[in-house]
Structures are given as structure tokens and as C-alpha cells.
Amino acid sequence: MPTYDFRCQECGERFTVKMSWKDKDKATCPACGSQKLQQLFTGITILGGSSGGGSCTAPAGSRFS
């Protein structure tokens, strides 16, 4: 099951939740209970094919539009 990183737009809390992609819109802030969340994209690693090629990592805190 994938994990998603969020920042609460109400209190600023950053947190990670493990849930189905279908349910990620139902996430709530563990600190204040708000559903006004901004999804963060952090630390994506892509590994190459069977040759064990290089990897590509996005810097923590990167945002993709």
C-alpha cells in the first residue's frame, strides 16, 4: 500500500499516511482533524532495468505540477 505525505493548510502539521490511492482524498490531519491538506511529493526513487542501472531521486520537498 502506498504512502502519501501531506501538510495541513490549517495548522502546518506535516505527516505521512499509508492508504489506498482511492482513499487519499479522505485523509485528515492527525493534529487538528482538518481535511484542508496539501499533498507533498518527496523522495521519489526510480531504479533502472535488470542491469541495475542508475537511480534518479527527486529532492525532498520537490513539487511537481
Describe the model.
- The chain has 65 residues and is mainly beta.
- It has a domain at 3-40.
- The protein contains no helices and five strands.
- It has strands at 3-8, 14-18, 37-40, 45-47, 55-57.
- The strands form two sheets. A three-stranded antiparallel beta sheet has the order 2-1-3, with no helix packed on it.
- Strand 1 and strand 2 (14-18) form a beta hairpin.
- It holds the Pfam family Zn_ribbon_8.
- This is Zinc ribbon domain protein.
- It comes from Neomoorella glycerini.
- Residues 1-42 form the Putative regulatory protein FmdB zinc ribbon domain.
- InterPro entries: Regulatory_FmdB_Zinc_ribbon.
Low-confidence stretches: none
Order of helices and strands: EEEEE
The Rg value, from CA coordinates, equals 14 Å
Supply the number of helical segments: 0
Q: What oligomeric state do the depicted chains represent? A: single chain
Share of residues in helices: under 10%
The residue-averaged pLDDT reads 80
Through-space gap between termini: 23 Å
Count all strands and give the number: 5
Could you say which structural class the secondary elements and strand pairing correspond to?
A: mainly beta
Biggest sheet features? 3 strands, antiparallel
